[in-house]
Amino acid sequence: MSHYVYGPVPSRRLGRSLGVSLVPPKTCTYSCVYCQLGRTTDQTVERRSFFPPADILGEIGNALEVKGDVDHITFIGDGAPTLSSDIGLLIGQVKERFDVPVAVVTNGSLLFDARVRAELMAADRVLPTLATAEYKTWRRMHRPHGDLVLYAVIEGLVNFSQEYGGDLWLEVMLVHGLNDSDVSLKALRESIQRIRPGRVDLLTPIRPPTEDWVEVPEPDRVLRAEELLGSSEAMVSEADAPFDAADFGSCREAVLTICSRHPLRERIARDLCTRLNGEGAVEEMLFDEEIHTVRWRGETYLLPHHLVRNAGT
Fold first, then answer.
1. Start-to-end C-alpha separation, the chain
2. Alpha helix stretches (DSSP H) within the chain
3. pLDDT of 71-98, one tens digit each?
4. Measured on CA atoms in the order 120, 73, 174, 37, is the torsion positive or negative?
5. Which of 67, 100, 95, 123 is closest to 246 using CA atoms?
6. How far apart are alpha carbons 263 and 204 in whole angstroms?
7. How many angstroms separate the CA atoms of 133 and 128, rounded?
8. 255-304 per-position pLDDT tens digit
9. What are residue 15's DSSP bridge partners?
10. Distance (Å, whole) CA 74 – CA 105
11. Side-chain half-sphere of 216: how many Cα atoms within 13 Å?
12. 30, 70, 94, 103: most buried by Cβ count inside 10 Å?
């Protein structure tokens, strides 16, 4: 199983996306209440090289050889990819070696740093998050590292938008009772108008969040957010395309690879195992405590044993 590269996974916006993780699991600047990967265990704003760039590039090359064409190579992974001081080098090397568009999915919290902005310039598209322009809401939703300042985060996004020549697609995660009121949305709209992204994508929690009190906004609030924010698309369900069994060598590899990146619906896992001739593998992994189950909104999801969830606020 690859250490740094996973997928390809189906993505609404990025198509068949080969994911690349540049930081260890749950190394992040935020510890978002809605995060599908659980609580941040190493919260930091210190950028450094976590893994050898040559190893990452080697795994990307191997994955492309084995798994065929992909629509994007996406730097995203298990935390904040911009914490990696190698991200600029790696984007450049990927662009030089492989004829595949590069995307970066980031929480945007480090874009106040001119070095980070410069390192992302060669990416074809960057998808940062901005969920609120209100300080108290930002603190409650994202539980940011103590050295971060909301004003600087927003100004970093504004500056990046002015400097960047690629596609800038802003993500707004909506959480019921936190940032879905008209007051919150109108304050956010003012910042978005300054950032001037190419598109605004509304997201709602579609898999079990870290904190069990997190709720999905009512449909009318999503529609209101679309109206106020000028959203290009509201993504309130998973991508329709199934996982390709041919991308995995075994059921165990498939389940661990996918659920380490996001909670995996048990029924999808069982279907995938059937296609990989791995009937009974899910039960074995549950018995061996490699994975565990979480119930959310009427469905059962599988997660790796190490993810920290529902640990309070």
1. 34
2. 53-67, 87-97, 114-119, 135-142, 150-163, 182-195, 219-229, 251-259, 266-275, 281-287
3. 999 998 778 999 999 999 999 999 999 9
4. negative
5. 67
6. 15
7. 14
8. 777 766 666 778 778 887 877 877 788 888 787 777 777 777 677 777 77
9. 11
10. 7
11. 16
12. 103
Closest CA to 178 of 146, 136, 147, 208: 136
Residues 6 or more apart in contact with residue 126 via CB below 8 angstroms: 103, 104, 106, 120, 160, 164, 166, 167, 168, 169
Sign of the CA dihedral with 146 first, then 199, 196, and 90 last: positive
Question: Nearest CA to 171 among 222, 235, 123, 224?
Answer: 235
Contact partners, residue 146, CB within 8 Å, separation at least 6: none
φ/ψ region of 257 (left if φ > 0, alpha if ψ in -120 to 50, else beta) reads alpha
Determine the Cα–Cα distance for residues 32 and 55; give it in Å rounded to an integer: 30
Q: What are the residues whose beta carbons fall under 8 Å from the beta carbon of 296, sequence distance 6 or more?
A: 207, 208, 209, 263
In angstroms, the CA 170 to CA 106 distance is: 10
Dist. CA 58–CA 297, nearest whole Å: 40
Average pLDDT, the chain: 86
Question: Per DSSP, what are the bridge partners of residue 10?
Answer: 16
Instruction: Tell me the C-alpha distance between 222 and 6, whole Å.
Output: 31
Q: Which two tokens stand for residue 181?
A: 């009121």
Using alpha carbons, select from 304, 297, 131 the residue that is nearest to residue 202.
Answer: 131
Contact of 126 with 167, CB cutoff 8 Å: yes
- Residues 285 and 259: beta-carbon distance below 8 Å: no
- Between vectors from CA 238 to CA 29 and to CA 213, what angle results, nearest 5°? 55
The residue-averaged pLDDT of 181-205 equals 94
